[in-house]
């Protein structure tokens, strides 16, 4: 059952990334909707009462607005106003409740908006990148020969690097792991972390050569390390929340895999970092 669920998850992810557009956007909205429900469930286990419905609606609006902005339908200034407006709306909703909210209620609601609304929306931005990568041969880290499919390649490769990092961490950690990495996740080891980074670098370097990027070894090393570390941060953040809520899994949506948040935690912090590094490299090239 676990293997079947894993294969279905992977196939679903591959299909929606390849399709892109509204298919990819709706998939992100659906996954983050379920994950946010699981996050709020964890919060409620600790006695917090977040603005669940208002935050769910706000996250949906951010996801849809992100796609409308990247295709040019929505003005950038209007798009940039959505996050603060949604934050004000969530706080206002908590103020109007019969029993006034607490600092924890506000913090959990706004964090939910950022964690599972704003950050995942960068997958849509990353997938939509087309000709924004500098194609000049003068730059040390420019990405050549992929301007027409940049977003597709970067999205697929980033996802594959996360998978490679997870696989490397698991098998190397299981075989050679001795030193614990963090009390938040006792099964993770320093040896596993190193194994995950090596696997991620190997896959990144392979694709850097395959796609004829300049300085493939340098790009492969930096890309692989970055994605592996961001995946680890995402995983440990969710482990910290589950530890606080005193639960093993965020939910039971996926047989053998726990909840949706358990599956996507490694994918939450990655896209925004990759996206802005690309923007910075474009600026300096």
UniProtKB/TrEMBL annotation:
InterPro entries: PC_trans. GO terms for molecular function: phosphatidate cytidylyltransferase activity. One of its GO terms (biological process) is CDP-diacylglycerol biosynthetic process. Its EC number is 2.7.7.41. Its main location: membrane. Pathway: Phospholipid metabolism; CDP-diacylglycerol biosynthesis; CDP-diacylglycerol from sn-glycerol 3-phosphate: step 3/3; Lipid metabolism. The chain crosses the membrane at residues 6-34, 55-72, 78-96, 103-124, 151-172, 193-211, 217-237, 267-284. It is found in: Membrane. Keywords: Lipid biosynthesis, Lipid metabolism, Membrane, Nucleotidyltransferase, Phospholipid biosynthesis, Phospholipid metabolism, Transferase, Transmembrane, Transmembrane helix. It catalyses: a 1,2-diacyl-sn-glycero-3-phosphate + CTP + H(+) = a CDP-1,2-diacyl-sn-glycerol + diphosphate. One of its GO terms (cellular component) is membrane. The keyword Lipoprotein does not apply. Coiled coil: none annotated. It comes from the Bacteria. It is a multi-pass membrane protein. Pfam families: CTP_transf_1 (PF01148). Belongs to the CDS family. PANTHER family: PHOSPHATIDATE CYTIDYLYLTRANSFERASE 4, CHLOROPLASTIC, PHOSPHATIDATE CYTIDYLYLTRANSFERASE 5, CHLOROPLASTIC. This is Phosphatidate cytidylyltransferase. It comes from Prochlorococcus marinus subsp. pastoris (strain CCMP1986 / NIES-2087 / MED4).
């Amino acid at each position: 059952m676990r293997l079947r669920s894993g294969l279905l998850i992977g196939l679903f992810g591959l299909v929606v990334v390849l399709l892109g557009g509204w298919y990819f956007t709706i998939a992100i909205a659906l996954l983050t909707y379920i994950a946010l429900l699981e996050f709020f469930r964890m919060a409620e286990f600790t006695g917090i009462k977040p603005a669940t419905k208002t935050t769910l609606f706000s996250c949906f609006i951010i996801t849809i607005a992100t796609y409308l902005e990247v295709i040019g339908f929505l003005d950038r200034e209007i798009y940039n106003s959505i996050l603060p407006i949604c934050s004000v709306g969530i706080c206002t909703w908590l103020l109007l409740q019969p029993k006034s909210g607490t600092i924890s209620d506000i913090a959990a609601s706004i964090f939910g908006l950022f964690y599972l609304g704003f950050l995942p929306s960068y997958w849509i931005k990353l997938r939509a990148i087309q000709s924004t990568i500098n194609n000049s041969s003068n730059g040390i880290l420019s990405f050549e020969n992929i301007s027409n499919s940049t977003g597709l390649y970067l999205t697929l490769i980033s996802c594959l690097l996360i998978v490679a990092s997870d696989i490397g961490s698991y098998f190397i950690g299981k075989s050679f792991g001795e030193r614990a990495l963090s009390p938040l996740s006792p099964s993770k080891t320093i040896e596993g972390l190193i194994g995950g980074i090596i696997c991620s670098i190997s896959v990144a370097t392979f694709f850097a050569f395959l796609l004829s990027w300049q300085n493939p070894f340098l790009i492969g090393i930096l890309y692989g390390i970055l994605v592996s570390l961001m995946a680890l941060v995402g995983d440990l953040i969710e482990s910290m929340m589950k530890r606080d809520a005193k639960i093993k899994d965020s939910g039971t949506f996926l047989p053998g895999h726990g909840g949706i948040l358990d599956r996507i935690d490694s994918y939450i912090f990655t896209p925004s970092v990759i996206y802005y590094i690309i923007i910075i490299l474009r600026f300096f090239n």
